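Internal ticket #5521
Category: modeling
Description: The requester needs a full-assembly model to guide mutagenesis choices. All entity lines are attached below as received. Residue total reported by intake: 602.
Assigned to: D.W.
Attached entities:
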Amino acid sequence: MKSYKQLKSERKRVAVVGTGQTKFEARTPQKTYYELALEAAMKAMNDAGVTPENIESVVYGIYNDLFERQIMPDTYVHDYLGMYGKAGIRITTGGATGGYAFRSGYSEVASGLSDVTMVIGVEKAQDCYDWAQGKTTPEVIKSIAYSADMTWEFPLGTSAASSYAILASAHMDKYGTTEEEAAMVSVKNHGNAMNNPFAQSPMKITVDDVLQSRMISYPFKMLDCSLYTEGAYALILMSEEKTREMEVNNPVWVMGIGSSNDKSFTGSRTVNDRMGRYGDIADLRNHYESAAQAYRMSGIQDPRKVIDLAELHDAFSFTEIQAYEAMGFCERGKGGKFIRDGVPMMDGDLPVSPSGGLLGAGHAVGATGVMQIGEVVNQLRNNAGKRQVEIRNGIGLAHSIGGPGSSYCSVSVLGVD
Amino acid sequence: MKTSTEKARETARKELKSAPLESVIDGIISEKLNLDPSVLEHEKYFEIPDKMVMFYKYSYGEQSRFFSELMNHAELYGSKCKKCGIVHFPPRAICSECYGETQWKKVSNVGTVLSSTTSWYATSEFFDKVPYAVGYVKPIDAETGMLQRIDLRGREKVDPGAKVIARFKEDRKGVVSDFWYEVVE
């Protein structure tokens, strides 16, 4: 791995130079998935000051073929965007699709294959429809449940929520994390979303509201769970050389990327294996490893001190608490205390998910991780409107996770000079 | 007063006994559309119902013996690595820790819950089963655990560390749901 310091001295850094998004909504009957992608792409190109001719390759983050009713949906987006003739690839890594699409886009530019790459996450998550119950959600969670191992786990009635609830139960048992502490995450993120005009679920709620909402998968209640969302988010990535040529005035540099996949059979995270130093089923081991890689590349020693803001993947409130620990923002097992002390609040030392996160802004699966990175970019550019946090060191972090038992994780660290 | 969801569940539950889920849903779609065509938007944005259905025939490969022992003898098998000694459950032919070859090993019906959750919300296929618990269970003589249903028997949840024992269906089909666990009192 080349360090950021070295890349900087060689002028081989990669910048994010443009962001664009659609509103995140429960349903978007007014647009198909490729129409959503185009809206975000045009906004991002406009923000970056580039034209379609400048784009040399595109990375698509689209999670689930069953959502889109389409195998290889990326090829139809590519066509609709008029990107024919250019390289296009698709990433699908569950909830971490956006983070991994960004990793892939970074590789495109850092390798020298492209000078300008577009990363687009898009998802039309709620066309799945359960006609027996007259609702989208049961069918949406079914299409996600097919991501569980089809032989060993799916037939038992598992779901995304139960997969992550098992991790949360273990964390509660091992460290004494409480449902109240998790509820505080939900209150914070729904509240933060009130300042995000693109958010799906801005809400002023209380800890009691969360605790009293209907049980989904113990210990997760309804308000501990993000809602599925339709929407798109696009980023324009550019080589350092090209930013000079095009005189980009506010590049946000990629300082570090770390990614790690743990065993997807969560029950095997028990042997004294090479991830054992990070813990067991109660600890998001691959999140620790991803952060360690990203910090090593970025040259960050004390993340709690130098990071101005983080967007953490709160598909479920408890997961954000587990992530505080894995990102090194607090000691292991002290994630609950971290939020009780107010550190991740908007007026705290290290605001977490000013966008509202997945709980507040919505979970448009493939677009989610791209949105989180875009939020960090706009915060670092001091361009985040009413939800702008104070930028002191010019460093932000985005955390993208997914898969059974959170087996995928990619952490991106971004910074400004 | 029953909610519309509860009513729909009752209808589906009744019909599921006599027909496969897919044809029940087909029936519900045409009935709903006959009753209230405005359930779909046609004026501004044109919506239509759709489905994706696939049928398969597939092999368990080198994990086959787990399922044949389960179906024929109601016994649980893991695999022990000849090189590093780890007992994998579920079994794997080659150890993922050291790439050593493994050999079949019968494992205990008694196990420990690593962690579990109680599901109160489910897809159509499982909504008549809620609440139900799923969790990772490690047999006492294995190093890894597999996901399985844990009978709640009136409990709200099963805590990590609970001791459980495997129970087997009478009519086994060679699938993972041929057995489940119960808490040992």
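Resolution: model delivered.
Comment from assignee: Residues 21-35 of chain B form the longest helix (15 residues).
Ticket closed.
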